[in-house]
Each structure stands twice: as structure tokens, then as C-alpha cells.
Amino acid sequence: MSRTRGISGTGAGGAAAGVNLPGLRSHNAALVLDLLRTAGPDGISRLELAERIGLTPQAVSKITARLRAEGMATEAGQRASTGGKPRTVLRLVPEAGHAVGVHLDRDALRAVLVDLTGAVVAERTAPLGLGAGRAAVVDGVTREVTALLGERAVGALLGVGVGLPGPLDHAQGVLHKVTGYPEFDRFPLRQALEGGLGVPVVVDKDTNAAALGLAAGGAGESFAYLHFGAGLGGGLVLGGVVHRGARTGAGEFGHQVIQLDGPVCECGNRGCVEALCLAAVARGDIEEAARVLGTGAQNLVALLDIDTVLLGGRTVAARPECFVRGVADVLTERGRRVGEEPVPVRVAPGAGREVAQGAAQLLLGSVFGRGVG
Fold first, then answer.
1. Could you report the per-residue pLDDT of 52-87, keeping only the tens digit for each?
2. 51 CB contacts (<8 Å, ≥6 apart)?
3. In angstroms, rounded to a whole number, what is the distance separating the alpha carbons of residues 195 and 297?
4. Which residues of the chain have pLDDT under 50?
5. CA neighbor of 114 nearest in space, from 165, 154, 74, 170
6. Which segments of 171-221 are extended strands (E)?
């Protein structure tokens, strides 16, 4: 049985700044909550929690008593014991906390409200994108999130996560030169949204957010998420952790040059994967777009030795079989040349909500002791 190590005594809180969840007073409490979450509605006993975390049963009993008193955990019945009286099992209370995830695309917005398990309990979409400009974007996100929260009563609100095209500074919440939208260069989006919403806000690249959500959902330890919507980007998970790079700029997948004399891209280079894919889609050649996407994916596989390629975004969703087949064909041919099994290619789960749900995970990760980088 795998074991998650606890820390003796009370550690630093794992919640995002400003969150009023008193149960998150220690690293150990976060580990208990994470095990309660993964156990699902069937629950898990205190003795199992102690064995998995590496704490004494007495320490776990104190933690779970506090979590129950604060509404984070509750009893889920009893389970037969191998000796002695039946064991009481506990489960997470999903509605005890919520987070909002926002996908701010180039031309549309999607916002979801999720509970502590990451399940979507409310959703809104709006025709708002980066092209509207700074003030309109801040006002629009504030308006849609406020309306979303007004649709139902929620438990403690952890905050709002926002995923949008990069590059950007994830740590500071400041945008850089977003391709095609120079007005947003050096714009402190996190600060602006926190001022309007009055709750903690985390900002990350759309593809990083999606990769984080997919990793939390069990997508694997090493994969690439390739998002093809109005533009093209990539999120990387290496060793179970989202890879952002030293300057949080990793994953600009769409702007790798694969044709030196190709069409000019909005980033200023020629022959970028994004420019070639968009040009192919514009002329109705989806097979060519898939082949180009596969060529870019092949470079990632060769460079990083990833295990899986996941595809998402509305352009992929319009012809998923074609894109999966086209990318897989390129990777299969590579595998044949180098004598390796081809890396599998799948459509990412999420039904178009991958980025928004992943943005919510930027907040949920702190509840369960899972750092987001």
C-alpha cells in the first residue's frame, strides 16, 4: 500500500491566502483531506488514514474530529473489521468548499463553479475575449463570476483561478506579450481581478491550468496537453508536476518553428506550428492540420520522452477522430523509425471544460496539500 508521509505536529497552513477554511491548519490535515477525497463516497477509516499518512491513530483522530466539527468531513457508515468492533469510515463533504475556474480565451469566456472534489456544479459562458481590452475583460470576468456565484449558495470560497493564453508571469499574476494582444503587456491581471472580486485570484496559462486539472484527474506522471482552439498551445506535466520553467514561460508549443520559409505567425516568426495549423484549418484541410500538429508533438516526444499526448480545444472537438488519427500516425511512424512503441494519443476528458476546471484546481490544490508550482 502506498503511503503519504505526514509531518509530526502542526505545520504551515496549506490554503490559499485569505481563505477561511479553519480545517487547513496543518499539512497533515491537508493529507487527510486528500485521502478522504480520493476515497470517494465510500469513505476511509481512521486506521487506514493513519497507515497511509504515517501518523498515530490518536493524531489522526484529533485531525478528523476537527474536520468533522468544521463541516469538512462526516461519517459514511461502518466497515467490517478483521477483529473487534466495526470501523467507522469517514468521507469528504464536497459542498464544504468551492472554487471558481475561468477560461478566458481569445474570443470567449467560460466560468465553472466546482466543489471540493472538482465536480462542476454551475457554469456560465459569455462572448468575452481578450480582444475586448483591459477594462472590458476585468469588468466582464468580474460580472460573470459574480453572476455564477449568485446562482447557488456555496460553502467557503477558496478563490478564482483564471487560465488564459500566455506568455505570462504565473507567480506575480502579470501578463507578458500575449500574442496578438500587445495592450495586455505587463498588465497585472490578478491584482485587477482581486480588486473587483474581493477574493484570492490565481492566474496561469490556459494550457498549464488544463494540464494541472488533468494530472489531478489521474492523467499520468508524464504527458503533454495540446490545446487547439482559436490558437495553439501546450501544457507539460513531468514527474507529476506541471512544468512552467524558470520564468514560467514553458509550453509555448504553438510557436516552435518547423518550416523556415513558412507563413508569418502573429508572434513574428515564420512557419510556427500554430500558423501552419491555422492556415490548414482555414482552407479546410483538417488532415494537414492534424499532420502538422503531430509533427510538433513528435518534437515534444523526442525531446522530453513523455508517456502520453492529450488533445483538447474546440478545433480538436470539431473533428476529434481526425486529429487523434493524424497525430497518432506521425508518432507511430516515429516509433517505427527509432524502434520504440508509439506514444498513445487521446482526446482529453473534460467536454470542453478542461481549462476552466483546471483553473479551479489552481485553488483546490492548496486544500489537499498538492502544490501547483
1. 989 899 999 999 999 999 899 999 887 766 666 778
2. 1, 3
3. 39
4. 1-20, 22-24
5. 154
6. 174-175, 201-205
- Residue 109: what pLDDT? 95
Which grid cell is 330?
A: 506521425
| Residues whose CB is less than 8 angstroms from the CB of residue 197 and which lie 6 or more positions away in sequence, other chains included | 142, 145, 146, 160
What pLDDT score does 25 carry? 52
Place of cell 475556474: 101
Neighbours of 95 (CB within 10 A): 16
109-115 and 97-104 strand pairing: antiparallel
Q: CA-to-CA distance for 141 and 163, rounded, in angstroms?
A: 12
DSSP codes joined into one string, 52-110: HHT--HHHHHHHHHHHHHTTSEEEEEEE--SSSSPEEEEEE-GGGEEEEEEEE-SS-EE
Contacts with 60 (C-beta within 8 Å, 6 or more apart), sequence order: 32, 46, 49, 50, 53
Angle at 28 between CA 22 and CA 32, to 5 degrees: 85
pLDDT at 244: 87
Residue 328, strand partner residues: none
Give the separation between CA 178 and CA 272, rounded to whole angstroms: 16
The pTM for the full model equals 0.85
Amino acid 371: pLDDT: 60
Asked if 197 contacts 144 with a C-beta cutoff of 8 angstroms, the reply is no
Q: Return phi, psi of residue 83, to 5°.
A: -170, 135
Give residue for cell 510538433. 296
296 by Cβ neighbours in 10 Å (0-12 / 13-18 / 19+) ranks as buried
> 235, 216 in Cβ contact below 8 A?
no
pLDDT at 6: 42
SS3 183: helix
SS3 50: helix
